[in-house]
Amino acid sequence: MGFGVTRIFDGVYRIGQNIATQNMVEGTSVYSEQRISFEGKEYRIWDPNRSKVGAAIRKGMKEFLIGEGSKVLYLGAAEGTTISHLSDIVGKSGVIFGVDISARSMRKFIYLCEKRPNIVPILGDASQPMTYKEHISGFSIDALVQDVSQKNQAEIFLKNARAYLKREGHGYLSIKARSISASESAESIFRQETKKMENEFEILETIPLEPFEKEHEMVVGKKK
Ligand SMILES: C[S@@+](CC[C@H](N)C(=O)[O-])C[C@H]1O[C@@H](n2cnc3c(N)ncnc32)[C@H](O)[C@@H]1O
């Protein structure tokens, strides 16, 4: 074999140029991604063009604190492409609450959740976090991940962090500049959005997601 598997973070591996997670549901792909078997384990290649978290890791994220057993709130679940990899990472002792406003995406997402019991689907509006509190109550959320294409991305993120993220919990906010303004420079939008977070988060890293995602940045922070 011409490749090896090396660990980057808890549950995240490098295989050649690619990153990958160990498949929790062996023998199946989620979004037609490649699967690779190595020393008795099956890995799913994590496509950075289809996942902001995957892109941020490929761009050299320094620390990734979602690991086995983590409880994660994920806003903008869509059909669950990124969540499927987080599901591999957190394993059977972890849980991911995936919120999305689109009933159409939710139908495909629910199919994924049936195969992966550590994902809880929530059809809801992330800008109104109290509307889904009955699903989450009783859990202490270790990490909040957000990928919603909305104008008020930082506000939505902060509302959810206040409601659910534990103190010193980690936040991963993917900012899409063009959902906020069509004319301002992406750099200035990223600065403004990051500034909104500074009162409540210690900013650990800001990672530009180019070339995988144009005019997107991932902000990683720790809740104060
Ligand atoms: C770019 S896609 C997310 C892709 C997904 N994070 C992934 O990596 O697989 C953005 C998603 O945000 C959802 N969305 C937009 N506004 C929302 C809101 N207010 N509450 C919840 N979801 C929202 C959309 O329905 C869409 O599915």
From TrEMBL:
GO molecular function: histone H2AQ104 methyltransferase activity; RNA binding; rRNA methyltransferase activity
Domain of life the protein comes from: Archaea
Keywords attached to this entry: Methyltransferase, RNA-binding, rRNA processing, Transferase, tRNA processing
EC number: 2.1.1.-
Pfam family, one: Fibrillarin
Gene Ontology terms describing biological process: box C/D sno(s)RNA 3'-end processing; tRNA processing
UniProt-listed SMART domains: Fibrillarin (SM01206)
Matches recorded under InterPro entries: Fibrillarin, SAM-dependent_MTases_sf
Positions with a binding annotation for S-adenosyl-L-methionine: T81, T82, D100, I101, D125, A126, D147, V148, S149, Q150
UniProt keyword tRNA processing, yes or no: yes
Known partners and oligomeric status: Interacts with nop5. Component of box C/D small ribonucleoprotein (sRNP) particles that contain rpl7ae, FlpA and nop5, plus a guide RNA.
Cross-referenced NCBIfam families: PRK04266.1-2 (NF003276)
Function: Involved in pre-rRNA and tRNA processing. Utilizes the methyl donor S-adenosyl-L-methionine to catalyze the site-specific 2'-hydroxyl methylation of ribose moieties in rRNA and tRNA. Site specificity is provided by a guide RNA that base pairs with the substrate. Methylation occurs at a characteristic distance from the sequence involved in base pairing with the guide RNA.
Family the entry assigns: Belongs to the methyltransferase superfamily. Fibrillarin family.
Identification of the protein by name: Fibrillarin-like rRNA/tRNA 2'-O-methyltransferase
Organism: Candidatus Iainarchaeum sp
Gene name for this UniProt entry: flpA
